[in-house]
């Protein structure tokens, strides 16, 4: 077959004698980049015989013999019109020159408005490097795959075209992409128009209006509120051009929603000039006027906003996410919110994330988010990532101090995202790149990066003095015209606009600000794109809820989650789990933790609710207890019992996550803030691994509602319990969550029975409150013989904030009450039973926050005579619940009673690393708790 192709080709070619040098060079070009040679040559080289025991770039001498042998076999003769060897060699060099511009043209692009960049000279971009001489410039050459729409071009014309395409205001990096179709798509869209968009007069006026608005707002704020922090966009004004063009194009492409995440710089400008927040509302925030009736609020450059934006393709709903100062953490939040919207409405939502140059290179959550971008559980069909490169990372004066790569965007190459660098002083190039980026994202469903190379006219904030650390840069900035001025001068010099028309735009914008109006012509009132949050507003924890379910329905669902197809061969250990579950479904065996948890999800799904559960080992559960996904041992196929309850059930999403905590938890937070009608859960592999996501817990989960009014019903399942597994596998840092508790901001629960976890999960969805639920999940209790529940307890019970003594003690004989939470209860119970003690009662507090005063008060009515109370915990004294909750304990016990601590001594480490020492400590704290002193 290969020889047939080659012979056919030889019939019409002249592959003899001196021409072999031409073939050699062409083949070398093919080895470097197959797309650099004409398609017919690609077919020839692809047809070469391949042997597995030699590398792909084989020596050329066997190839010479191969070609000559084929020629002899074909009885070909040297044609009188054979290509001149020197001409053939030049042709290869021309193709190599084209390839050099594709690979490295961006290094000579005119990207820096200040012209301060000292880019190294790239010899590959010089024709002389390829032995092309002045005499060759008038000769026409085949341009190979260069997508200019012509097969041949004079070298001088081709060289000018390459410089215009790859070395103008746009620097394109895409040759690191391995997918040929993606590379050719970019080449076609760049090279066919030589890197320039075609803009009518109306288009140009629209771009100038955007720049006028960007500059006008900053100057107005600077005059009206001198010295006030606003993190000015000045220098990066083209961001407004880029965003508005992206939104317009999104509507034309059929997208219905755009969610934006960004940091401080330029945020006020985006709020006013893109989303349509009225200038009057912004001025009130500067003046300190606010509604004090609800929440603690946040500074103005952390605020989000929502509106509708009119485009030629219909209205697009815009959302700018709320976010704290922590750099880049908002990005996975935005992407999670987009995934929730896509799951609800289909693929009609676009995420746009805006980064700083130092932050995108320096913050690890960026890598985590890129890594998630193409995974099943976290993909959103690509994100448009904009980098505002003002060439100063915070106050760092040299990029060498903020990264180890040439470009701040090199991190994006890990997912082979194309990167388009663009000069911020060229708004038409900015608009063109925005369209190109969006089209690529929509076509290939992948991330794409736009780096807006600009500058920062002021310091980090308006009170900062940048000349102290960047004197040369700021001398240049002071003399440099603004982007609006640069573009206005261009339009007037080209006789597109008169000076009076330019001035009229500026004056008209300023008049709108004076009147406090919305300055975005495309702004429209929202028409119900967002999910309805009204049912969840203004509720306290005592709102009525009922987690009971008819016993027949419970049995029906229990049976459904316990069966799987006969053809689905399970691992023996998993098969035993499901055999036990079948008995549990019949009531012939008490329910264990995994059965009760899966049944809770089944009841919610059966009601039409959605459930999303993710984590690093969530499908089976880190401790081999959940097994919500069953793996066929014969063919590796999977089966989800929870997806096969009925045709009318809600959606069930279960994903084993990437090995990340920060980005994944932020993603799930974002998902939960956009989807109140689903139960969203994240499980840590071990509870203390949540440390890696502490910024999400501190800045979003614990305070997002108080700062921004953003509700979130996310559940965190954190395996917790002292089993002798060492410091990193014991504590979920309960104390840190309790320390963050205030204003009824979240729930912290430590369930100790399967029935409790069942009702706790159902309560989280059924009760019309959407606040985070932090669960200290057990490990050894998952299969503890005493930690079981009956079907009746699941069907007719509820979640009890406090659990009373279960043994039949005589209340009047009780002299001491031990209060505890979690796994230690079973150690206390076992030790007390072995000692046959009847004068010590054990009470479990299953919800530590909001603290259940009323429930404890009712439970203690029969123990009013008891004067000795003990709080017992496994954690060291400076950890766990003791320090953070003892004021609750003291308030809950009788006034004249005493309360003491029983547990491990204070420790810098969460737990010991030696099993013998662990067991010794555990015995001691249990004995101490049960001893009456």
UniProtKB/TrEMBL annotation:
The keyword Oxidoreductase applies. Residues 591-784 form the Transketolase-like pyrimidine-binding domain. Its EC number is 1.2.4.2. InterPro entries: 2-oxogl_dehyd_N, 2oxoglutarate_DH_E1, DH_E1, KGD_C_sf, ODO-1/KGD_C, THDP-binding, Transketolase-like_Pyr-bd. Keywords: Oxidoreductase, Thiamine pyrophosphate. The keyword Ion transport does not apply. It is an enzyme of class 1 (oxidoreductase). GO terms for molecular function: oxoglutarate dehydrogenase (succinyl-transferring) activity. Its cofactor is thiamine diphosphate. Belongs to the alpha-ketoglutarate dehydrogenase family. E1 component of the 2-oxoglutarate dehydrogenase (OGDH) complex which catalyzes the decarboxylation of 2-oxoglutarate, the first step in the conversion of 2-oxoglutarate to succinyl-CoA and CO(2). This is oxoglutarate dehydrogenase (succinyl-transferring).
């Amino acid at each position: 077959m290969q020889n047939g192709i080659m012979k056919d080709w030889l019939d019409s070619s002249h592959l003899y004698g001196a021409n072999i040098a031409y073939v050699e060079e062409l083949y070398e070009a093919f080895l470097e980049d197959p797309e650099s040679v004409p398609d017919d040559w690609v077919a020839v080289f692809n047809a070469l015989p391949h042997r597995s025991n030699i590398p792909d770039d084989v020596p050329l001498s066997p190839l010479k013999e191969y070609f000559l042998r084929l020629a002899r076999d074909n009885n070909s003769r040297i044609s009188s019109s054979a290509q001149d060897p020197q001409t053939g060699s030049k042709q290869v060099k021309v193709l190599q020159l084209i390839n050099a511009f594709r690979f490295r043209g961006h290094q000579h692009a005119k990207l820096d408005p200040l012209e301060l960049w000292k880019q190294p000279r790239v010899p590959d971009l010089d024709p002389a490097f390829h032995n092309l001489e002045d005499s060759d410039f008038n000769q026409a050459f085949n341009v190979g795959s260069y997508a200019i729409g012509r097969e041949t071009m004079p070298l001088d014309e081709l060289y000018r075209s390459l410089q215009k395409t790859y070395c103008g205001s746009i620097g394109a990096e895409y040759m690191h992409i391995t997918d040929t179709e993606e590379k050719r798509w970019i080449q076609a869209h760049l090279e066919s128009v030589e890197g320039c968009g075609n803009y009518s007069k109306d288009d140009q006026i629209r771009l100038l209006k955007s720049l006028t608005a960007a500059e006008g707002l900053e100057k107005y704020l600077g005059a009206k509120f001198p010295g006030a922090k606003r993190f000015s966009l000045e220098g990066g004004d083209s961001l407004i051009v880029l965003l508005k063009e992206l939104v317009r194009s999104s509507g034309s492409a059929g997208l219905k929603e755009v969610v934006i995440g960004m940091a401080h710089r330029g945020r006020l400008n985006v709020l006013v000039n893109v989303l349509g927040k009225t200038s009057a509302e912004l001025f009130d925030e500067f003046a300190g006027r606010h509604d004090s009736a609800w929440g603690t609020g946040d500074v103005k450059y952390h605020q989000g906003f929502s509106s509708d934006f009119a485009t030629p393709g219909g209205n697009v709903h815009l959302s700018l996410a709320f976010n704290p100062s922590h750099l880049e953490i908002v990005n996975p939040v935005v992407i999670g919110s987009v995934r929730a919207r896509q799951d609800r409405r289909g693929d009609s939502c676009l995420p746009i994330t805006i980064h700083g140059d130092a932050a995108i290179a320096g913050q690890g959550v960026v890598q985590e988010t890129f890594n998630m971008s193409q995974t099943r559980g976290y993909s959103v069909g690509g994100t448009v990532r904009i980098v505002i490169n003002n060439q100063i990372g915070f106050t760092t004066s040299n990029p060498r101090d903020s990264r180890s790569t040439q470009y701040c965007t090199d991190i994006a190459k890990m997912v082979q995202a194309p990167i388009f660098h663009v000069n911020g002083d060229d708004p038409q190039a900015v608009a063109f790149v925005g369209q190109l980026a969006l089209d690529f994202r929509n076509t290939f469903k992948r991330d794409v990066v736009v780096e807006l190379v600009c500058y920062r006219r002021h310091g980090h904030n308006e009170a900062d003095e940048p000349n102290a650390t960047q004197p040369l840069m700021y001398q240049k900035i002071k003399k440099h015209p603004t982007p609006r001025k640069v573009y206005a001068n261009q339009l007037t010099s080209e006789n597109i606009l008169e000076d009076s028309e330019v001035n009229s735009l500026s004056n008209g914008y300023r008049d709108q600000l004076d009147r406090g109006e919305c300055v975005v012509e495309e702004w429209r009132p929202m028409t119900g794109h967002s999910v309805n949050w009204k049912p969840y507003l203004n509720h306290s924890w005592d709102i009525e809820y009922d987690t009971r379910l008819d016993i027949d329905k419970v049995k029906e669902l229990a049976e459904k989650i316990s069966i799987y197809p006969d053809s689905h061969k399970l691992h023996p250990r998993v098969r035993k789990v499901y055999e036990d579950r079948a008995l549990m479904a019949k009531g012939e065996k008490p329910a264990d933790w995994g059965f009760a948890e899966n049944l809770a999800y089944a009841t919610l799904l059966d009601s039409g609710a959605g459930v999303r559960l993710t984590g690093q080992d969530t499908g089976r559960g880190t401790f081999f207890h959940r097994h919500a996904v069953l793996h066929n041992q014969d063919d590796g196929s999977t089966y989800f019992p929870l997806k096969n309850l009925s045709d009318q059930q809600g959606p069930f999403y279960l994903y084993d996550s990437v090995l990340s905590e920060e980005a994944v938890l932020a993603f799930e937070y974002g998902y939960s803030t956009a989807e109140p009608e689903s139960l969203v859960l994240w499980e840590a592999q071990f509870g203390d691994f949540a440390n890696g996501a502490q910024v999400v817990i501190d800045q979003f989960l614990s305070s997002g509602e108080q700062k921004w009014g953003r509700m979130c019903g996310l559940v965190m399942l954190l395996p917790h319990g002292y089993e002798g597994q060492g410091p990193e596998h014991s504590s979920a840092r309960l104390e840190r969550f309790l320390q963050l508790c205030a204003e009824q901001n979240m729930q912290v629960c430590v369930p100790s029975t399967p029935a409790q976890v069942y009702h706790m999960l159902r309560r989280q969805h059924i009760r019309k409150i959407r606040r985070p639920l932090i669960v200290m999940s057990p490990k050894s209790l998952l299969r503890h013989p005493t930690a079981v529940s009956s079907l009746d307890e699941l069907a007719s019970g509820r979640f009890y904030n406090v659990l009373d003594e279960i043994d039949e003690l005589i209340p009047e004989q009780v002299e001491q009450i031990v209060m505890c939470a979690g796994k230690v209860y079973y150690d206390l119970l076992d030790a007390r039973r072995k000692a046959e003690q009847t004068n010590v009662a054990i009470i479990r507090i299953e919800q530590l926050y909001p603290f259940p005063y009323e429930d404890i008060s009712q439970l203690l009515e029969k123990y009013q005579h008891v004067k000795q109370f003990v709080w017992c915990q496994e954690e060291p004294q400076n950890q766990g619940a003791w320090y953070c909750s003892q004021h609750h304990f003291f308030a809950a016990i009788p006034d004249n009673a005493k309360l003491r601590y029983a547990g491990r001594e204070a420790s810098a480490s969460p737990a010991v690393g030696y099993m013998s020492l662990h067991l010794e400590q555990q015995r001691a704290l249990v004995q101490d708790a049960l001893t009456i002193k």
